[in-house]
Each structure stands twice: as C-alpha cells, then as structure tokens.
C-alpha cells in the first residue's frame, strides 16, 4: 500500500501573507488509492477542515490539501451545487464533470464505514432539492419535509426563527406539562418547537407542516387554532391557570424545582413574596442563596457582561491552574445576545483529559433539546449509550475516547453541528 506524508492545511489568505504549511512528522498509509478527496474550506473553517483531513488520513483515505487534477471527489459542507460550481469557476476549473461533487454526509458515511461508500444520489449535491428561495411557494413544504430529520442533532438550527408565535406557544405548553411531571406531552411540545425553529419559512397553513416529523395531534391542534384565530385558547388557559402562575414564580428561585413547588403550592403559597414572608419554610443552602440574590439572578445578562465575567474567570482560574482552558458555553456560545446565566466549561490538561472532557461536555448538553436528541440518536440509531460516564458502544462493548466535540460527532456518524447552529 502507498504512504503519503501529511502536511498541515492552511488557508489561501494566510499563504498569501507568506505563511507556509507546517510539516507534520506523521505519515499515513493509503488504503484506497482510487479515491482522492479534496475538502472545501468554504463555510467550514480551517480548524474543522484540518480535523476532518486528519481523520480521513488516519482511516486510509488520500486527502489533498490543494485542488489538483488528481482529485476525484470534492466534499462540501453547507454549500449548494451552484455555490460549489461558482467556487470551481473561481479556481479556473472549466470542466467540473470530472469531479464527484458531494455533500459532507458522504464523507461522514465513509468515516463511519471505515471505507469509501457509493456516492448515491442522496450524497450528490446536484441531485439535492432546490433551495427554498428558488422553489415555488406551493412546493417548499414538501421539499423541506422530505429532508427533515426527527433528531435535532441532525438539523442545523440558527437563531433565525420564522415561527416564533408557534414555538413560544409550544414552550408554554411544554413548561406546563413539566410542572405536571408529564414527560411525554412535555417532550412532544419541545420537539415540535425545535422542529419549527429549524424551518426556513413561516408556517401559514396546515399544508406547510404536512409530512413533517414530531407533529402530534395536540401540536397540530394548537397550530391550526393559531393559524385560524391568531392565538391558542389552550395557551391562554395555561397562562391564566393559578397553579401554572405559582409554579412559574417558584421555579424562578435558584434551587427550587417542581417537587418543592408542589409542596409549597399545597401549603397555599402562591407568590415569591409569600415565600419570603413565611419564616417556617426550611430552605436548602441553594434556596437561601436563591432568595438572597433573587433580583440579580432573575435579571438578564448581556453578551458584553458575559465577556467581562469570562475574563475574570479566566484570570482567576489561571492563577491556580495555569494550563487550564476556560470556554464559555450555553446560550452565548450559540450566538445569543442576552441570557439569564453564564455557563463555563473548565478543562485542565492531564492524563485523563479526554475522558473528563467527554463527561463535562455531555453534562452541558444534558438539558438541551439538542443534547437530549443526541443521546436519543446514539441509543436508537447507533446502539450506543451517551451519558455522563462517556460514550459506550454496546455492540463492541467498549468506551470510545473523545478529546473534542468533533470526535463525539464522528463516533456517532454525524455531521458536526457548530454551536451557533444548535438553537433547537
């Protein structure tokens, strides 16, 4: 078998500035000589491209850093067929027919199989459905529905929500069912909200949701009423419900959950002011702190404030752990400008760094719809268990190591989803 020496991938802009690709000492064995892959950096970024290049080379694929006559397969992420053609024209490529133009999902399937897979129609960019912007209005929903996954971890959801009036209603319904500890109906509305946040068009008629997953009868009824009446009577009932309003206030206190809220509600308490006034309540340390700093904790935090706090945390951590890495996570990492708290992931390099990182990342994903679906996908589709203990392959009966989020996605055979695309 052939061997190829890998050189680092570096952007064209940096090369123009006089930087040279760093030479890596490692070399990789080429198992599949008929396949020569070029990964487009456009819309992907240099770091992710480097990661995917190294991953493919370790599995025996030949990946070229530069587009050349030897390339047989061009892989693109978040680029349409026309966008790739336009990019090729900019590279002075006259005849693009000699290349297989493929979506990143083909590359992911190859990494999962450990060998090249057939470049079926579903992987070819030229065979994909038209862009919603160029598709007649009547055809958009059916076009989208054919491609929508039931798992939010397979959908790229930005902050551009075209269906806020529906998703706000769903989240109120989900919260009410959460207060009633009805997990099934709670998840039904959360998944529907996640799905509608993903749609690249506003839902204006029932036909728009035809064929979409995660749309149960309850959800359908709420959508239909909002379309016809402009609002949902069920949502209005929830917002006026005494129990819902009390639980909404109680759970706004740090350290207070549904069980404690139920106990206080049965005691006849209804507001935060009544809780503060009742000196007979036995509070945990967290709940005492929650009441003490209540006004601060319920107020919003801006991105500028989050950045300032991040700097303080980084400086403090570096005093005790100079090599530690502090990363802001949560809503601000997903691109939000406002939030109610600031989440951090602090990692310290060491012999068990990979394992510890995996545990911490999974813990951060735990309560997000995106993370919930990631674990569901791992279990139902991959026969794996993804939890705070790690990523366990039930078929191979081994724990899989991961030193980054990209590696977790790769183990699961999923395309990597950037943090700002996880607003599910």
Automatic annotation (TrEMBL):
Principal location: nucleus
Keyword list (alphabetical) reads: Magnesium, Metal-binding, Nucleotidyltransferase, Nucleus, Transferase
Cofactor dependence is on: Mg(2+)
Gene Ontology cellular component terms for the protein in this record? nucleus
| Database matches in InterPro entries | BRCT_dom, BRCT_dom_sf, DNA-dir_DNA_pol_X, DNA_pol-X_BS, DNA_pol_lambd_fingers_domain, DNA_pol_lamdba_lyase_dom_sf, DNA_pol_X, HHH_MUS81
Q: What is the designated name of this protein?
A: DNA nucleotidylexotransferase isoform X2
Q: Give one Pfam hit by family name.
A: NTP_transf_2
The record ties this protein, via SUPFAM superfamilies, to: BRCT domain (SSF52113), DNA polymerase beta, N-terminal domain-like (SSF47802), Nucleotidyltransferase (SSF81301), PsbU/PolX domain-like (SSF81585)
Query: Matching Gene3D superfamilies, A to Z?
Result: 5' to 3' exonuclease, C-terminal subdomain (1.10.150.20), Beta Polymerase, domain 2 (3.30.460.10), BRCT domain (3.40.50.10190), DNA polymerase beta, N-terminal domain-like (1.10.150.110)
Question: What is the native source organism of this protein?
Answer: Lepidothrix coronata (blue-crowned manakin)
Coiled-coil positions are none
Annotated compartments = Nucleus
Q: Where does Mg(2+) bind?
A: 341, 343
UniProt-listed GO biological process terms: double-strand break repair via nonhomologous end joining
Record-stated family: Belongs to the DNA polymerase type-X family.
**GO molecular function of the protein, one example?**
DNA nucleotidylexotransferase activity
Residue ranges of every copy of the BRCT domain listed in the record: 27-124
